[in-house]
């Protein structure tokens, strides 16, 4: 088997980092670092402008800048975020830029965001139209529009919340409950948020002891409460400190030169690997395995539920653990299906989307040109599965999250690109499909007998059952070393949407896996 890096392309935990850090800053997402002269004009003035050192797990790996320009009829909040991350010896640069515009009363006019990740650019534009928030996402020249109902009691932007907190600093004990709007959030952009003013405290900022007011906040993401501590002075935010599972994120105000100085990549390889207490022996020959998944930290917070699928069922759930039974599927069952009719309830799994763009000419043509043993659903799935592995012959982590048509053109990607291309091709042939994100055991990495890594694969619907296919690991059906964390129809313009972000935030770098038994 090829190495874990080139063979599986372990899924990318860094995809969550821009979103996490942007939330921590409690600032409107962003403008370009060099945009001050463009943002300010003779009718507006800059009322806030501050640089921040960004540390992940104690390593200075990036910086941020936040600024506010005010005029008589508009408040423009701007910020910039730059992070360098290393995984399996490869560096990835992530840059987030955005700008929000509000009325002096705090009503959102519009918000724009651009995220660059190793050459991939994703832009989002949000405007309020009546009782709806309209978000348009553009990636690889394609646009998708989503509409979200504005909460009945309204919402507040990150910049608006920062201004509100600043106005309450002299009121220790004061608490707030608001709905926070964040364009960085995957899925629903309206998140429950609670804030409490604690009181005065001295912290380190600008390289010296600085007087500040401590503020505690909690954001709820997909059922997971994410707590953080923030410090403000009368100008605005000075510092922030938050720990999400195995990842500690810290920002603090600094001069421009200090913020940009001695920045190096933070190595997240350890977050991508889980060493089981007892590895699964001969996964390909094992019919059934029972695991206990347990949180290493934050045991005071209940573990979020895991999905039950045609391979996986929950046997027992405690506060900080889940016992799972994973059963290998029988390919003879699928092979016996001669034809099938797709019910109406599964039509969403046949849609062409931004990532599963099967209606693009190249994907449609590829699906028709593949050679199949027969026209039975399972034989079609097997033909596509083999084609995907052979087509993606450049096994690389350098790809962010590419649509199927781009994967066909580049022949490059990791497990996510294998999963996306296979799902798109299946839909082109009339087979309902979905993506699975989870963990897969692979041998011989990082000096261990076996490790679990974050991974992605595909499921296709065959006569009432979701059949599993892993083009990256060349398995079908997949072995019982696969643990499902989330499933998605992949119809959203945001790759993380509907992938249970709350669970991902809870378990990355914070999970133990124990094999209880195998059969």
Explain what this protein looks like in three dimensions.
The chain is α+β, with helices and mostly antiparallel strands. It folds into two domains: 13-269, no CATH class; 275-518, Roll (C8orf32 fold). The chain has helices spanning 4-8, 17-25, 36-39, 158-167, 256-260, 269-272, 331-335, 361-369, 377-391, 404-410, 415-428, 501-507; strands spanning 45-56, 59-70, 75-87, 90-102, 108-117, 120-129, 132-139, 142-149, 156-157, 175-181, 190-205, 208-221, 224-232, 237-244, 247-254, 266-267, 273-274, 288-295, 312-317, 321-327, 394-395, 412-413, 433-443, 450-462, 465-469, 482-488, 511-518. The protein has a 16-stranded mixed sheet that branches. Strands 17, 23, 24, 25 and 26 form a five-stranded antiparallel sheet that branches. It has a four-stranded antiparallel sheet with strand order 19-20-18-27, with no helix packed on it. Helix 8 crosses helix 11, helix 9 (377-391) runs antiparallel to helix 11 and helix 10 (404-410) packs across helix 11 (415-428). It is globular, with a radius of gyration of 24 Å. The model is unreliable at 1-10, 16-20 and 22-41 (pLDDT under 50).
